[in-house]
User: Fold this.
Amino acid sequence: MEIDKSWESIYDSVGFVVDRTLNPEKTLGPACLISTNRMLVNASAVFKYIEAPWALAVNFPHADLQYAVKSISLHPTFNTTEAHWCYLSQTGSPQDPIYLPENDIAIIEVEPRLRPLDPQLAADLNMKLAIQLPISDMDVSHGFKGEDMPSIIKRTISIGTDGLLTVVDSRNIPIARLDIHGGKIRRATYKHLTNEAAVFELIYQKPAGSFLFQTTHSFVWPNVRNLDQSADALIGEAILRAEQVRPIIHALGGPEARYLAGNGAFDPNLVNPNLRWVAERLWPWLDGYLSLEKLTQRTGVDTYSIVQALQDMLNNHLIDIYRKSPFVRSGQIGTPLVPTVDMNIEVWDELNAFYLDPLSGRPIVNQGNFFGPSRLMDTNVLLHTVPVPHWGYGALVLKDNYLIGLYTGIFSGSPGHTPLPQKLYRSVWVAALQDIENIRKEPAPPTAEELAAEAQEKAAAAATLKAVAEASQPLGRFICANCHARNVEVGMCRSCGVDMEEAALGEDPAEKMENARRLRESSQTKSGLHPGALVMLPLSIAIIGLVLYFVYGAVSNPKSNGNHNQPAVASNPNGGVKPASHDNGVIQEASTDQGVVPEVSMESLISQSGLKSQPLTAYSFEDTSFRTEPMPSFGMVSQEQNQKMLFTIWGNNSPLQSLDTVAKQVPFANFQKVNNLQSVQVAKGQVTVGGKNMDWFVGRYPRKGGGNEMAMVCAYKAPSGGKTVVVVARPYTAGQDLNYMESLSTINNMVASQVAGSH
Assistant:
């Protein structure tokens, strides 16, 4: 629709976030000024750059300005794990599922000074953002220059083997695919084009990158016809067209030329019959904004056909070349739009969606109505009837020119419900910005009294631990200095896999040697108790109780009846707490120590771990402490999702510093110790949990009883100082593989926002 002049006041307030490490720069999404140095943007557009905001810039096309991005703050419940998984799963095919995340909103801080890029940092970022290709030893892969594309296709065909030729960009994202079959190109895709048009455009555009030829693949082809033309004829025609395109473009005003269609409806009788289908697609986009070089992206027509149609339409005076720029280029940043949350919105109130076309920068306003009761806003969701195309993702939703939402896609309704009579669209309500503001506020620094009390508590706990270790060694119990688990023999800790002699080496070298000597001497005892054991036994029991009080807090619900299977929290039919199961429980090995150990309440453990108090749908908490004592723990399981996860709370940060050590000997699992993690590795990576990075490792571990099992190990810092939560995820059903992406997503969704401030 034709835009009203009253909207010009916000042209210079809206820009596009771009990745400037790529050439040409890649547009990620729109951004809108909400203060002099902060902008509103979709979290899905910028979440991959949370640790690298320097790689981004904001281009203001109407103001002709470019600002630097200083920082990125995502909504605390935006699912970065799921978003990252979708990023890694993209195939470059139009059939890729559309990702519509919840609370897709973020704030970026900007500044006018744009610093030069560090080439090494840019290269490292591109490597980090590159997706993993499914390459086997039988596949052929190599980098290439764009002009080599025809020879690469011919050489691949000359091999005489059927397969899939895939072209990827610098981040391994597929951009083109050719189905090689019977010495011919049977099918082809290039970005938005298929078959002949795809081959023509691929050879004309000359994209540089890498190619991959696979005889076995899982790519599902879109519904396109098979090509009959021989490969040599098809490639020869593509080369000829590419040579002819450039002089025609020059005659049409160059790649940046813009065109205006005449007034009135399109008359197909005035166009060459062979070009009418192209002219019909072009007509709506000849608006004086969209340049010639970008018409193919919007129309789905190859460049050669477009320039042929434009030349014919110019000769028949259907269109004119637009000689001036459509942008005012004020050189000044616009007035910020203030998000409004206290406006009264009634059902069917008129709303507007404003956005800039990401290809041309043309301002567009669409109208519609608010749909549904105001209670929908309690979930940060606005439903409305304002139509917005898929390239308008992130459009501003306004009522009476006040910003109330950010467009986040088509509303598809709930599964199993009656389809709605009218197409609805959804937006995230700007009230969600308050959630971001809450986590942006830095916690108050601890007072001198708090620091002194914490130091005193740590010193007392350390002294008591030392006394326990010394007193309990004659009993054949060895305390691991790393994770504080009890062991029946010296050597590797059965819980964390650390060499206890090395872990016991404290600050004093002489004390280290003495502790090691005591461990060796106690391990050489053939039978019976040490002569001093009977004297130390009462003192050892008393000290053990004292250290557990210091390390794990006050005792609640003591197990006076010796029943270790009693849950600490009442069962919840919709996903509450249940006791650990011996068959499907999180832990496979129970402790051999049947002594009475003080119990910390389940509510307290869940709080200490930084998790939300209620599990996700289809999940339930379970009590696992009797199998990991004295280390506090709890489980979170779901038979439906095939997940069982063990959360153990460690009294130090060693797992954060060396997750590999924990991954080699998975805590409280009947796995054999692995000396070389690469021999069992399935996947590894890093995700954001609570606003900070969390490393994770997935392996296929050999079980002590034979066979193997997938498991994931990860660790994050607990809210309370000095502690770490180690998570071990395993399949609920034996013999099945673990969906570790579901595990990561569950952890990310369960970690409360309070953890963000503790890292």
Observations:
- The first strand starts at residue 14 and ends at 19.
- The longest helix spans residues 448-472.
- DSSP finds 19 helices and 31 strands in the chain.
- Residues 468-477, 504-517, 522-598, 754-759 have pLDDT under 50 and may be disordered.
